[in-house]
């Protein structure tokens, strides 16, 4: 049997005429003449070898065959509309810079050089890269103010996709005059502790809590703070010791240094690539950045 090459415009005429039940009204909506819409219906019926519409006192009525095909015809029109909308979104995305937000916890890690290389390889696409606290990154991505994000906060949202990229070892920010090379959990428990909230990093919080209990100590959490630079600033002000990524040892304010934790398995935080589901660049960046062997600079 010879394959028929059906024209979607004929299906649009059929669906519109079935809905409006009047040739003149359907022609006006489609922006064509009544003669043209009659020709499209005749062509569709000829291609299908089925009678789809009949005239009645109430106007135009679908036949049994027409009613049976109507759901498929509507789905075909909807598919065309969705495809056009998707194409428009892709054109719009390609015409504007994609906003990429970085959590401040990762800007001193080995992820950054790889990210720079990946963005340089993304020829034909412009990226606007900014750095924010992790909670601000999460808020911007959820609201659509940014397109992609490298963040330490996982997002449990249906419209956001994410992939785990790596894990960063954590350390202790202390006053610069502390004469230690590393910090034991017993020493840590003697000082007010500044760290991210438990609901943000439950694994980090719980591992420190278990380590303290195993040593017969109690953590003195003085203040939960989401942004790691803010933790460093509070340490500089003498408000306590802070838990920050070891990679931030090269970004401390005056009067603060970062020491490793003396634990068999130091706690870590996870780094995710998160993006809105429609973004076409995310998969390429994930492939360029994902690794199990990142080390702090």
Q: Class of the largest domain in CATH?
A: Alpha Beta
The fraction of residues assigned to DSSP E strands is: 15-25%
Q: Which radius of gyration do the C-alpha atoms yield?
A: 31 Å
**Overall strand count:** 12
Low-confidence residue ranges: 292-297
Specify the helix fraction band.
40-55%
CATH topology (fold) name of the largest domain? D-Maltodextrin-Binding Protein, domain 2
CATH architecture of the largest domain: 3-Layer(aba) Sandwich
Number of helices: 10
Q: What is the averaged pLDDT score? A: 82
Instruction: Spell the H/E element sequence.
Output: HHHEEHEHEHEEEHEHEHEEEH
As for the number of domains, it is: 2
CA-to-CA gap between the ends?
Answer: 68 Å
Shape: rod-shaped
Structural class: alpha/beta
Largest sheet: 10 strands, mixed
| Quaternary form | single chain
Keywords: DNA-binding, Transcription, Transcription regulation
InterPro entries: LysR_HTH_N, LysR_subst-bd, WH-like_DNA-bd_sf, WH_DNA-bd_sf
GO molecular function, one term: DNA binding
Protein name: LysR family transcriptional regulator
């Amino acid at each position: 049997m010879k394959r028929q090459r059906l024209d979607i415009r004929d299906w649009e005429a059929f669906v519109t005429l079935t809905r409006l039940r009047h040739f003149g009204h359907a022609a006006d909506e489609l922006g064509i003449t009544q003669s043209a819409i009659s020709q499209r219906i005749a062509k569709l019926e000829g291609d299908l070898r089925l009678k789809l519409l009949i005239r009645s006192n109430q106007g135009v009525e679908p036949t049994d065959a027409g009613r049976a095909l109507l759901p498929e015809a509507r789905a075909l029109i909807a598919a065309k509309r969705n495809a056009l909308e998707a194409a428009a979104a892709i054109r719009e995305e390609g015409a504007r810079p994609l906003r990429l937000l970085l959590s401040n916890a990762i800007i001193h890690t080995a992820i950054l050089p790889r990210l720079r290389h990946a963005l340089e390889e993304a020829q034909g696409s412009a990226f606007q890269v900014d750095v924010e606290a992790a909670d601000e990154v999460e808020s911007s991505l959820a609201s659509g103010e940014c397109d992609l994000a490298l963040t330490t906060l996982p997002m449990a949202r249906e419209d956001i996709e994410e992939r785990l990229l790596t894990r960063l070892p954590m350390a202790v920010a202390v006053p610069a005059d502390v004469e230690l090379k590393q910090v034991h959990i017993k020493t840590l428990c003697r000082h007010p502790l500044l760290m991210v909230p438990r609901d943000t990093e439950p694994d980090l919080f719980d591992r420190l809590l278990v380590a303290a209990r195993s040593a017969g100590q109690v953590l003195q959490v003085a203040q939960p703070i989401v942004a790691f630079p803010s933790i460093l600033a509070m340490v500089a002000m003498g408000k306590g010791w802070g838990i920050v990524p070891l990679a931030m040892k090269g970004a401390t304010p005056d009067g603060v240094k970062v020491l490793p934790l003396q634990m068999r398995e130091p706690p870590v935080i996870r780094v995710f690539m998160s993006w809105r589901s429609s973004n076409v660049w995310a998969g390429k960046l994930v492939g360029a950045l994902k690794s199990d062997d990142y080390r702090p600079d």
